[in-house]
Amino acid sequence: MNGHCDPRFARVREIFEKSFAKGEEVGAAVAVYLHGEPVVDLWDGVADRHTGRPWAADTPAYAYSCTKAITATVLLTLVERGLVKVSEPVATYWPEFGKPDVTVEHLLTHQAGLPIIDDPVPVEEFSDHPAIAARLAAQEPMWEPGSRHGYHALTYGFLLGEVIRRVSGKTAGELVAAEIAGPLGLDMWLGAPDHVIDRAARLTTNRPAARTADPAPTPMEASANGQPPAPAPAPVETPAAHGQAPADDLFTRMNRAFADPQSPLNRALGNPDMQLLPGGANHPAVMASGWPAAGLVTTARALAGFYRALVAGEILQERTLRDAIRRRVSGPDELLIVDSSFGLGYMRPSMTFLTPTAGHEGAFGHTGMGGFLGLGDVEHGLAFGYTPNRLARAADGALRGYLLLEASYQAL
Questions:
Q1: Which residues of the chain have pLDDT under 70?
Q2: Could you tell me where the Low complexity compositional bias lies (predicted)?
Q3: What is d(CA 393, CA 269) in angstroms, rounded to the nearest whole number?
Q4: Which of 40, 49, 310, 355 is the least crowded, having the fewest Cβ atoms under 10 Å away?
Q5: Whose CA is closest to 2, among 55, 53, 60?
Q6: What is the DSSP letter of 31?
Q7: Which helix H or strand E contains 133, and what residues bound it?
């Protein structure tokens, strides 16, 4: 195990080591800050299971939907400057949008009714975010905006990103570099350059070749390169023992949605379809594209550092952040099936954002498909980042990060 761990957080290290010993990790990193102090910074394993390249202190990974919290933060910086009002119609800033009932808040809280792009997006448009946004501007919502919420897996970023571009004249990725990652010294890119792509972790769904524990594959394996995973043969085991909501048939229904290629969930996850490129999320064009909903390339240290800075008031004013994490929507998610909860772009504790009981008041952040997790807690001064390269099904993949997070809270 590489890095350092404050003795108060020894349980985090112990659980991280066990994950590797049981063959649950190929390579991964975890970082924790407490009141601005780095108390955990650990990494181990290999960044590329085919070449054996070891995971290093500065190995970044493609963190999927952890991106959404960063993009939301960029938009909130524009709100602080008086350039955007979340209560205003999107068309105020983007006249071609043409849906006067859809507000900026609806975009931030997954209430816009535009989680799916109707027509397939060709590879040639992957980096042409305005073109993808124009497709959404021409569509009719699936439900009355504001009447319900459903996870906008990829469209979230193209919608918010276009508002950001129209207001600031810059892309979300450019603002991340200029106003967040650069000033704070964070290894975080929304649109990774070649030298970062070259040293990034390569995502996989396979277990490591050598294991010290039961080698049987889990029933929760995702398919190659992070494509929506296959169905589980039984309902997902949920963390009821950790103070979360008990398992019920909602999780079986969620598994069914993941398994059905034509389900709204898979249609939302699969367009634009990164699997049109060899290697999917590992392809340089995907990592360079900077999709504002699922394009972040970052280290665990930088992901935790981002939340440390948020909690410390270094990116947004305290009142802005506290208002942003106020729950706007909670309950059954139209696409994810199980309950989700969102503030202005940030996930709040729910079935889709598992947190220990101690974090239910102040915790906010975002998960990423396969197990990625970034979190801040305004009540405890905690910041957390976890970046693995072995992807697991969302429901049990989240438990690896959750157990590390639980141990972090136990140390407080």
A1: 209-251, 393-398
A2: 204-215
A3: 14
A4: 49
A5: 55
A6: E
A7: helix 129-137
Instruction: Tally Cβ neighbours within 10 Å of residue 285.
Output: 15
Taking the CA of residue 233 as centre, how many other CA atoms within 13 Å lie in the half-sphere pointing to its CB?
4
DSSP-assigned states of every residue in 165-215: HHHHSS-HHHHIIIIIIHHHT--EEES--HHHHHHSPPPBSSPPSS-SS--
Catalytic residue numbers read 65
* Residue type (1 letter), 187: D
Nearest-angstrom CA–CA distance, 386 and 41 = 10
What was the pLDDT predicted at 257?
76
pLDDT at 393: 65
| Distance of alpha carbon 14 from alpha carbon 17, whole angstroms | 5
Rounded to the nearest angstrom, the gap between the alpha carbon of residue 225 and the centroid of all alpha carbons in its chain is 16
Tokens standing for 34? 């407490």
State how far the Cα of 390 lies from the Cα of 393, in Å rounded to an integer: 10
Assigned token pair, 237: 């085991």
Catalogue all structural domains in the chain, each as residue range(s) with its CATH number. Answer: 2-68+176-410 (3.40.710.10)
CB 225 within 8 A of CB 280: yes
CB 62 within 8 A of CB 296: yes
Q: Which residues contact 350 (CB under 8 A, 6 or more apart)?
A: 330, 339, 340, 341
Q: How far apart are CA 386 and CA 303, in angstroms?
A: 8
Give residues with Cβ within 8 angstroms of 138, minimum separation 6. 98
Longest dimension (CA), the chain: 59
- Which segments within 196-332 are labelled E, that is strand? 296-298, 329-332
Contact between 75 and 160 (Cβ < 8 Å): yes
pLDDT digits (tens, 9 = 90+) for 323-365: 999 999 999 999 998 899 999 999 999 999 999 999 999 999 9
Would you state the pLDDT for residue 240? 37
Q: Report the pLDDT value the prediction gives residue 224, as an integer from 0 to 100.
A: 32
The number of angstroms, rounded, from the C-alpha of 197 to the middle of its chain's C-alpha atoms is: 19
Q: What is the pLDDT of residue 227?
A: 37
- The confidence score (pLDDT) of residue 206 equals 85
322 burial via Cβ count (<10 Å: 0-12, 13-18, 19+): middle
pTM above 0.85, yes or no: yes
155 CB-near residues (< 8 Å, 6+ apart):
114, 115, 116, 117, 136, 268, 293
Q: How many CA atoms lie within 13 A of 367 on its CB side?
A: 29
What whole-number distance in Å separates Cα of residue 63 and Cα of residue 47? Answer: 14
